[in-house]
Amino acid sequence: MLEQIVAEVPAAVSCYPVQQAGRNNDDQCIVWRRRAAPVILRGFVLMAACAALQSAHADEGMWTFDNFPTAAVRQAYGAQITPAWLDHVRLSTIRLPNCTASFVSPEGLLLTNHHCIEQCLAELSTKDGSLLEMGFFASFRKDELGCPAQHADVLVGTENITDQVLEAGAGLSNAAANVARKKKLTSLEQACEHMSARFKNDRLVCQAVNLYHGGQFFLYKYKRYSDLRLVFAPEADIAAFGGDPDNFQFPRWSLDFAVLRAYENNKPAKTPNFLQINFAGPSVNQLVLVSGEPGSTARLQTRAELEFDRDVFLPFALMRSSELRGRYIQFGKANPADHRIVQAALNNLQNGIKVRRKELDALNDDTALQEKSAAESSLRSSAHLQGLDPWNEIQSASMRERTLYLPYAFIEGGAGFSSALFRDARQLLRGAEERLKPNADRLREFTDTAIPLIEQDLFARIPVYAEFEELTLSFSLERMREWLGPDHPVVRRLLSKESPDELATRLIAETKLDDALVRRRLWQGGKAAVDASHDPMIELARSIDGDARSIRKQYEDEVEAPIASAAERIAAARFKLYGTNTYPDATFTLRLNYGTVQGWLESGTPVEPFTYLDRAFERATGAPPFKIPASWMKVKAQLDMRTPFCISTSNDIVGGNSGSPLIDASGRIVGLMFDGNVHSIAGRYWFNPANNRAVALHPAIIREALEKVYGAKDLLAELNAN
């Protein structure tokens, strides 16, 4: 399961949109905080050696649409990727809060992965009935169910703002430059949105995007659809067939797809740009392209930053997540209702653990880190840098980060307060304060651009389960006391008279923030309403807010700012030598990459690039995670057992590409990306063309399922009609 863990967008309470999308807890919200700080211009450095910089590997690269290597693709594959082709695909590709999707009909129908909408399914479920387990199909449009906290963004334009952003910080100290850049980014976003509202029918959402880690800045302009409704989702047993054991493995047999529909003014959206589906799929060695929103890579970061991940961030994340997984599993065994409550969060957590474990393995590869050092030395010697060495500055800042990281993660990042209700309380508290300030002076996650998503999340009527909230909050309080120590001022203040279990139980029992109407009244009442509130969760957020803001300021001034300034100088040196002949690190913004349908050698044994339906039935054990649903068993005799199921390709993708369309040279969908093999996880740091493979769902199995298993003839007709 490819999961979008991070993205460089304004985020509330230090969570990325994948966490903001719903109200169930996700421990990943906090442990990725250092990747999530709004407009953290983290350091970024070298590509490999000069030769590698000047020409990309055939299958490597997450290219922006304005800089796609069309000539290289034409020379290698004879394919004509024209400006019109690029515009059509761009306008047909969708960014969800945590994944990618694509329009597949002119009436707002969009295709994505099942695991990308697990949160929506959970939000529409109850303890007594889970759409995640049962699946869902709306036979008529009137039956399509709204996803309370979902939205979809389509990139309709970009604007280069590099000179304006860099000029804002020129000649200032590191800390002052960091603040000035953020203010400039906010003001440019605000001006962009005001301009679109004045001159266009559709008001745009404008997001400042940092490319090449300080080398370029763009405004990305999106059309947003805020009314998304669930059309179809298969049962979890077939959508996630193989479960965690098969995750990041190949061969695979997961029917990981779902269908939503975008609405405008309570009617299906008119979407003239959409991608047709070629249900025949691709052939071996065929050129295929992926249009999507890869979440985050660190291929240009310095060795010092990678060593921080290896020594501090990843071990911390793994220890915390592994213990929480045990608690989730135990919680889910109590009864079927508790299993339904925890299922989506557990799936997400287990995926993250596997990702981090393999990332840690990658960073323990001394050969790869030595190559990183050699690349840095090469650029150093070629750049003729004057003044302080930016690599040494980043190393110094990363050493300081080792000291600040734990208090920052637990107090400001919220790792000590893992609760959807606490996140709401902090949103309300800080939102009341920040909205009184001029837009450019606010914390970046509370700018006018971010406010609509905060309101959508706060106002959504989504079930909150007290027993699950108590589990996650008490766990996080325990870990904060363990890691920061019982004498830390915040820990002492909170836990001198109550245990973590007692405090969590009392807070969850007494808070009223589980009521969407209460949240709405407090938000709309502003500072006066929040100041007058004695809700215990708001009082908790208020009691630590001074400490949290203080550690945030220290982190931004002593870690973020010096790294940003040093990275800016490295990026300038890089551009002077290589220009834009290389691709930028992923930032959960739209990219296009190319590859071919192919397998690989695993310990000398060939892995074929296609799987077929018959092997799914052969692998079935009758018990999860290898259980085939009754709906499939009932029609087994009618199914074509040689229907292609999954595809392996050499495309360069990471988390966030989940739900991306796999496209042929004619611009037709020939697959749906949903995972990578285990070797692809190291792709966060470097790409190995020998065995890094992406995994897609074959469109033939989608047709087989809709036609023969689910009887979704009208839906299939809409997909086929175009």
What would you say this structure looks like, in words?
The protein is an alpha+beta fold and 722 residues long. Helices cover 47% and strands 14% of the residues. The protein is built from 27 helices and 20 strands. The strands form four sheets. Strands 1, 2, 3, 4, 5, 9, 10 and 11 form an eight-stranded antiparallel beta sheet that branches. The radius of gyration is 24 Å and the shape is globular. Mean pLDDT is 91; it is low at 4-57.
Q: What overall geometry do the principal axes of the alpha carbons give? A: globular
Number of strands: 20
Q: Estimate what percentage of residues fall within beta strands.
A: 5-15%
- Separate helix tally: 27
Largest sheet: 8 strands, antiparallel
* Helix-residue proportion: 40-55%
- Termini separation comes to 29 Å
Keywords:
722 residues; 14% strand; alpha+beta; 20 strands; seven-stranded antiparallel β-sheet
Question: Concise description?
Answer:
This protein has 27 helices and 20 strands. The protein is α+β, with helices and mostly antiparallel strands and 722 residues long.
Protein topology:
Layout (H helix, E strand, L loop, with lengths): L16 H4 L7 H4 L1 H4 L13 H5 L15 H8 L5 H10 E3 L4 E4 L5 E4 L5 H6 L7 H4 L1 E2 L7 E2 L5 E9 L1 H8 L4 H26 L5 E7 L4 E10 L1 E7 L2 H4 L3 H4 L11 E7 L2 E2 L18 E6 L10 H30 L3 H28 L2 H18 L6 H23 L7 H15 L16 H9 L6 H19 L4 H7 L4 H11 L5 H17 L3 H43 L12 E6 L3 E3 L2 E3 L2 E3 H7 L10 H5 L9 E6 L11 E3 L5 E8 L17 E4 L1 H11 L3 H8 L2
Antiparallel strand pairs: 1-2, 2-3, 3-10, 4-9, 5-9, 6-8, 7-8, 9-10, 10-11, 12-13, 12-18, 14-15, 16-17, 17-20, 18-19, 19-20
Helix pairs in contact: 9-10, 10-23, 13-14, 13-16, 13-19, 16-23, 17-22, 17-23, 19-21
